[in-house]
Design brief:
It contains 14 helices and 18 strands. The chain has 436 residues and is of the alpha/beta class. It has 3 domains: 3-134 and 303-338, NAD(P)-binding Rossmann-like Domain (Rossmann fold, 3-Layer(aba) Sandwich); 140-299, Dihydrodipicolinate Reductase, domain 2 (2-Layer Sandwich), CATH 3.30.360; 351-431, 2-Layer Sandwich (Alpha-Beta Plaits). Helix content is 36%, strand content 27%. It is elongated, with a radius of gyration of 24 Å. β5 (99-102), α5 (105-122) and β6 (126-127) form a beta-alpha-beta unit.
């Protein structure tokens, strides 16, 4: 039977999952492809630690060049992560005419344009289904069965660590720091969780989704990114009172010749399907002009789901090779010369509803002063709660606004925070309750 050579860079958790899947389901893969996928080399700095998966003698190597230059390897899987070394390896593999499969969302979000251009010159594929949503096949769907649609919005819960933390806070009333510690003990969060809890990982994934949905290049640094570390149990409880849950949401919206691309904690109504996406699960919600609304849901990380997406990409490339096709489609689904450079809409120009929480001294006239500033800044109040004192002096005042311009919200909060009766920085959480 004809063989297609595969090389693997990185033999960590996900790499071990790929080796396990390619071995355990080899017969199934052959039945579907009509060719055998042959894992020829696996490169990693550590080739002595037992990963718990069988691997043939002679396949492991510390020398990445054995993967990058082997003429019998047609497809290279990059799973080392990071930027500099991963980019160098991928560009070398492309220069040697090899097709690429990667799960490296950070690399693609920051350096994707350079990698895609190199692949176009060499007429090879770059596939990255595992970079967004783990085993959820959302990228293939956008580029495939839904490709004829104009997309209007893409919304995602894209980080399992953040979603686990917010779920526990919602269900148990626990504080962020306590749940984060538990998540680290269970292996859901890294020892340094910054990329996850500050929204950076989610923003990497949003950059890819926005490019795919709207056919535009994205400067990752222009994506507004706010994490969940400032979310407190009091905000979770007030959200419940108003009929909302708080999720770290990736939001992409097409607005004429501009796009919204932002990541931040967001209140969504409890009766929305995305509000029921709990724990370490991910979800992506798309709206297209013909397909209408579609939501994808599943495990967004982990050895097995991610390996499933990676090997699926390998099989897609293998089908092309079997048919004698080198590069069937561009990485972002659009012809290379048709990609746009749409402006990312500044946050100050975003229009939406807002949850505002003030910690104020409990004395007459305070609420009237706050309401007066909001009114002067063109912000209309939809509802309000003033709770009992928390520490004998201060009282939380919570206001839900009608739609307002974020620039006006920022201006109002700056003035209110200067009041001598305000005891801590005011809290703002954006609301999405009119999803189309």
């Amino acid at each position: 039977m004809k063989e297609i050579g595969v090389g693997l860079l990185g033999f960590g958790t996900i790499g071990a999952g790929v080796v396990k899947l390619m071995g355990r389901n080899a017969s199934l893969i052959e039945e579907k492809l009509g060719v055998r996928l042959r894992l020829r080399k696996v490169a990693d700095l550590d080739i002595t630690t037992d990963r718990g998966v069988p691997i043939e003698p002679g396949i492991l190597t510390r020398n990445a060049d054995e993967v990058l230059t082997d003429p019998k390897i047609s497809i290279v899987i990059e799973l080392i992560g990071g930027y500099k070394t991963a980019k160098e390896f991928i560009l070398t593999a492309i220069e040697n005419g090899k097709h690429i499969v990667t799960a490296n969302k950070a690399l693609l979000a920051v350096h994707g344009e350079e990698i895609y251009a190199a692949a176009a010159r060499k007429r090879v594929e770059v596939r990255y289904e595992a970079a967004v949503g783990g085993g959820i096949p959302v990228l293939s769907a956008i580029k495939g069965n839904m490709a004829a649609n104009h997309f209007g919005t893409v919304l995602g819960i894209l980080n399992g660590t953040c979603n686990y933390i917010l779920t526990r806070m919602t269900q148990e009333g626990a504080d962020f720091s306590d749940v984060l510690k538990t998540a680290q003990e269970l292996g859901y969060a890294e020892s340094d969780p910054t990329f996850d809890v500050e929204g950076i990982d989610t923003a990497h994934k949003l950059a890819i989704l926005v490019s795919l949905c709207f056919g535009t290049r994205v400067d990752f640094n222009q994506i507004y990114t706010e994490g969940i570390s400032a979310i407190s149990a009091i905000d979770i409880n007030f959200a419940k009172e108003f009929g909302f849950k708080i999720k770290l949401l990736a939001i992409g919206k097409l607005d004429g010749d501009r796009v919204e691309a932002r990541v931040h904690p967001t209140m969504i109504p409890v009766n929305y399907p995305m509000a029921d996406v709990d724990g370490v699960f991910n979800a992506v919600r798309l709206t297209g002009d013909f397909v209408d609304t579609v939501m994808f849901y599943g495990r967004g990380a982990g050895m097995d789901p991610t390996a499933s997406a990676i090997v699926g990409d390998v099989m897609a490339i293998a089908r092309n090779l079997t048919a004698g096709i080198g590069r069937r489609s561009a990485p972002l689904g659009y012809l290379d010369n048709r990609l746009k450079n749409l402006e990312i809409k500044p946050m100050g120009e975003i229009v939406g509803k807002y949850y505002l929480r003030f910690s104020a001294v409990d004395k007459p006239g305070v609420l009237a002063r706050i309401a007066g500033v909001l009114g002067a800044c063109n912000i209309s109040i939809e509802s309000m709660i003033q709770s009992a004192r928390m520490d004998g002096e201060t009282v939380p005042i919570v206001i839900m606004t009608h739609e307002a311009l974020e620039r006006d919200i920022s201006r109002a909060l700056e003035e209110i925070d200067s009041f001598d009766v305000i005891r801590e920085k005011s809290r703002l959480i954006r609301i999405e309750d009119s999803l189309q």
